[in-house]
Amino acid sequence: MQQIRYFLAVCDKGSFTRAAQATYVAQPSLTQAIKKLEEELGGELFSRDRSGCRLTALGRLVEPSIREIVRKTQALKAEAVRFSRLNTVPLRIGVMTTIAAHHLSPFFTNFQQERPHVELELIVDSECNLLNQLDEDGLDLVISAPTSLLAEHYQSLKLYEERYVVVFNDKHRFNQMQQIDLATIQAEPYLDRLNCELRETLRSVCQGRQVNLYAAYRSNSEEWILSMVRAGIGVALMPEFTITKNADQIRVRYLSDPEIRRTICAIFPPTSAAKPEVAEVLKSLRMSF
């Protein structure tokens, strides 16, 4: 690992001198470590010139794998430290920002009551950021609403579907209507959810139907959108489970035309599914939804 650390320092700094300074080691010691690594790998890793040094063909070949070794080693150390400190099995789950906490909270409550040895850590973020963390072993699984085909190295478990609803306050004229479509909404100030995973899909549907939703306000916060609905500033389109039952001053109707749905899935790489604690949560998810 010391040789690997010095190798990457030279890659990043472009010279043995700067790499030695960055790793706080004498340059002869760093040079000797690189030579030992070259002997083990069977060839030179760097070629030197006046400007510093460059990777050889062999160096370019092994660099990605060496960086992957460092990344996995760091992840392993972090998990070992967490386990030692907490004496529990850490399970890191990412949840997409727009998924309603109150809809998933009962599941997590029951799961932890039945399996107190499993520590749960919930990370709430955008789908893009969560999948990046999943790739980097920062998460064990992600609960999200994918809008496109997942990469081949992911597996998924369908949890539930939810329809989109029109959200308005209890004094709005929509209270008198049983069905509301896009054409009806365009006559109202529209509250645009910036984190909506179907935002581009909705925009495309509106263009196809020649519907113009005037965005009176925009926000990346579901709570702010609901607060503005309560204040009578406008109406919004939201996933149905985002709204709690008997929400104060809030009324909803299913969007009738077109009917829009999203599918909530648990997303995970096969390596995560092999972990006993992840297998347990996936089994519980299958039974709960």
From TrEMBL:
In its UniProt entry, the species of origin is given as Methylomonas methanica
The UniProt entry's sequence similarity note says: Belongs to the LysR transcriptional regulatory family.
Keyword Transcription in record = yes
What is the protein named?
DNA-binding transcriptional LysR family regulator
Q: Which SUPFAM superfamilies match?
A: Periplasmic binding protein-like II, Winged helix' DNA-binding domain
Cited Gene3D superfamilies: Periplasmic binding protein-like II, Winged helix-like DNA-binding domain superfamily/Winged helix DNA-binding domain
Question: What are the protein's GO molecular function terms?
Answer: DNA binding
Work out whether the entry's keyword set contains Transport: no
> Which UniProt keywords are given for this protein, alphabetically ordered?
DNA-binding, Transcription, Transcription regulation
| Boundaries of every HTH lysR-type domain copy | 1-56
**Which CDD domains does the annotation name?**
PBP2_LTTR_substrate
Q: PANTHER family under this entry?
A: HTH-TYPE TRANSCRIPTIONAL REGULATOR CYNR, TRANSCRIPTIONAL DUAL REGULATOR HCAR-RELATED
Q: Fetch the PROSITE patterns from UniProt.
A: HTH_LYSR
